[in-house]
């Protein structure tokens, strides 16, 4: 029989969690309850809050006596992050569900993120319709808006809780039994303005027996790729779209953080890297762009996204950062430069064409790259030319074959 872990504050929301527990059991599932609250629960759980605290060497009585909600939440969250993956490895549950506001979500989300991708995870939360990145991260947590606060049972909350219960029940009951042929996994990065390149490269690789995972280079996409490389899922990286570094350095909205472009080199994973879409930084609607960027060249990609052309000075800074990251690689790293344009709108005649800007980027890379570590290949093509795409794909195959 499949088992669902129910994790949450059984001291303050015991009624709601008992409703969820009885509903899941009525569907023919077992439940495994984990109490994350500071005080005594309204019903006896399978895992107590004292066990969670002990997982990181703390005492729940001492925590409760401090009467510091923020301190207790942080401690129990860390304990959950440590304990829950161990409980999963022991076979205690097949999926996990929780309910909560900001505090309850913060308590359980790190533990959910620590579980392997593919383990069903449902979080019913009052903050599910806002910025969920701090809670979901690079995981596959399903965030469901609670609509009303998780405070009692009413005609709205019971419907939401029921939908959530049916969702997690379906996830654990109906497994995909289709056997997918195991192929070497390649990660590739893509943006709208590098789509033709990555599409051609993906087809080239798939025709030769590889499976390609494409990540949208929107910040969280790059972070997700780096996380999968770190976790050992990826055997080769076709990082043709490094645009997230423009946003990180300039201050756009699609940055992937300071550790982008590190995982492959650090973990000896073969990688072919290029400079796709580094001609642009991303903002929201035009009227949201900070005044300090007045004088830049802009392109309205759609009503909610405005692109800003990177300048000569900004490209120098971006180039230096790529140099730092690529020179960290231990082996099997290639940098490919498309000399006729680095995005669909950075070719002659298009809105962001900038020979001087691109020259600064290329020159900074040429001068800074350690050729003993990184091979540099320059091609007289634009990034979206099929010849460039296929050459990059073949180069990755060559690296993986060595």
From TrEMBL:
Domain UPF0261 intervals: 2-176, 183-400
InterPro entries in the record: Tobamovirus_resist_UPF0261 (IPR051353), UPF0261 (IPR008322), UPF0261_C (IPR056778), UPF0261_N (IPR044122)
Name listed for the protein in its UniProt record: Uncharacterized protein
